[in-house]
Design brief:
By secondary structure, the protein is of the alpha/beta class. The chain has helices at 17-27, 44-54, 69-83, 102-110, 132-149, 165-169, 180-193, 217-234, and strands at 4-10, 32-37, 58-62, 87-90, 115-119, 126-128, 161-164, 198-202, 204-206, 243-245.
């Protein structure tokens, strides 16, 4: 049994999927890859099946509806927990997260971290090819979440992560209802609140070269509402987890 399952959620990523799977395989040849496709109408699911047929380390989970990034990841986490992997990885299918960082991030997890965040907001981290508006929304949203939740994590909304599965078992994942940005904030904050070890590793984030961003106004509104509610109802709890940069 490989120690890590790399979860790649997809919806209409036919132009980038084969490339990202190939890059992951080069960076982490011993890991398994799970593509979680939300019934993409562009044929992404069928391409994923073809890739899986030619590589025993690749498998596909077909979901019948598109109900958010958070639910896609939770479905992948459930498989990782059921099959006994030590680590589960979140990575975007569009190439914005460089798989070459995987060996370093997995190494940090092996060294004792419960959550390793590929961070854009620490020294050495960066974002490339975003508009000033997208940069502003991301920075303000991250600042707001950190402030309201009293978090010490620099990049709460980051989507490139390695989780220790034993840490995920400590959380009530069935109670996680948020999606998108909010899903990433919620899981990191819950681990921080519960005293788990969190480390941030600087990465260079690249805007997608193909396809369209799934970020919409609904995701931003959901994040704002949920984070505000958490801050009002649970924000008096100060996180105790050590958050370090590596």
């Amino acid at each position: 049994m490989p120690e890590a399952l790399i979860v790649v959620p997809t919806f209409n990523e036919i132009d980038s999927l084969e490339s990202i799977i190939r890059r992951i395989r080069v960076a982490a040849p011993a890991a398994d890859i799970l593509v979680v496709d939300d019934s993409s109408p562009d044929g992404t699911g069928q391409l994923a099946d073809a890739l899986a047929a030619s590589d025993p380390r690749v498998s596909v989970l077909h979901r019948t509806t598109k109900d958010g990034l958070g639910r896609a990841y939770l479905a992948g986490f459930a498989i990782a927990l059921a099959k006994g992997y030590d680590y589960v990885v979140e990575i975007d299918a569009d190439g914005s997260h460089d798989p070459a960082e995987l060996p370093a991030m997995l190494g940090i997890a092996r060294g004792g971290a419960d959550l390793v965040i590929g961070s854009r907001r620490v020294p050495g981290g960066s974002v490339h090819n975003w508009s000033w508006m997208r940069q502003a929304i991301s920075k303000v949203g991250n600042w707001y979440a950190r402030t309201v939740l009293r978090s010490r994590i620099h990049d709460l909304t980051a989507g490139y992560r390695v989780y220790r599965t034993s840490a995920l078992r400590d959380l009530a994942l069935t109670n996680v209802a948020s999606q998108g940005y909010c899903f990433q904030v919620e899981l990191a904050w819950l681990l921080e609140l519960s005293g788990h070890t969190i480390k941030e590793h600087p990465i260079a984030f690249e805007e997608r070269a193909t396809g369209r961003s799934k970020m919409g106004s609904g995701i931003v509104v959901e994040a704002l509402m949920r984070i505000t509610w958490w801050g009002l109802t649970r924000g008096t709890r100060r996180p105790t987890s050590p958050v370090t940069l590596v």
